[in-house]
Design brief:
With 214 residues, this protein is an alpha/beta fold. It is built from 7 helices and 9 strands.
């Protein structure tokens, strides 16, 4: 799960993540866990306007016979079933990220340092700051703290979709930035108890109700 503490303008994030391979592929979960930890801690730290952000991540590989451990936990699952065969998808404000088996090697190698932190942003309640399929636009469904982002900030922002970044001529691994408003929104979402929700877990059965298969 996600835990957050704040002292004045210093915000500390703590993630406890369970990592499971639900695919038929062979994945070294320990190597993947190390890559995930490194990528998250690299992005969610630093000075963002008046906020100083630090992050500590624990990623624990588990196996299919340990499924009962998943209830009420933040889970990253390697899967062959991701909507539209995307690289990944996340439960907005929830507790589940699915990673497409096809792209695991790119995450482990560091060729893709963006997908996991981006999907974690959705877990934290951050939206795409741009409108769907529209360049240099504003997502009117997003928080006002996200809507005020400038066009220049969007081109290198972590939460813009990959096509948006590429259209701006930016290398994907260079688009890892967060704004002061996004960091403030993470705190507000946590403080108002909008995060850590089991949208896709049935209590008592410990099964995911994701559309399609996990």
């Amino acid at each position: 799960m996600l835990f957050l503490t704040r002292k004045e303008n210093s915000i500390h994030l703590y993630f406890e993540i369970l990592l499971i391979n639900k695919s038929a592929g062979n994945v070294n979960l320990f190597i993947l866990a190390a890559a995930i930890k490194k990528q998250i801690e690299a992005v969610y730290k630093g000075k963002f306007g008046r906020f100083e952000l630090t992050t500590v991540v624990t990623v624990k590989p588990i196996y299919k016979h340990q499924l009962k451990m998943l209830h009420n936990k933040l889970v990253i699952a390697v899967s062959e079933y991701v909507t539209n065969d995307n690289i990944a998808e996340a439960d907005f404000g929830g507790l589940l990220i699915k990673l497409n088996l096809k792209y695991i090697e790119s995450i482990i190698s560091g060729n893709n340092k963006r997908t996991v932190p981006h999907e974690l942003g959705h877990i934290l309640g951050l939206d795409h700051p741009h409108a769907n399929a529209a360049f240099e636009s504003v997502n009117l469904k997003a928080s006002l703290l996200e809507q005020v982002m400038s066009n220049e900030e969007r081109t290198t922002n972590l939460m813009c979709q990959g096509w948006y970044v590429q259209k701006a001529g930016i290398e994907l691994n260079s688009a890892l930035n967060l704004t002061e408003g996004q960091v403030k929104l993470i705190y507000e979402n946590y403080n108002s108890k909008k995060l850590n929700r089991n949208y896709n877990i049935v209590k008592g059965f410990f099964n995911y109700k994701w559309v399609g298969k996990i």
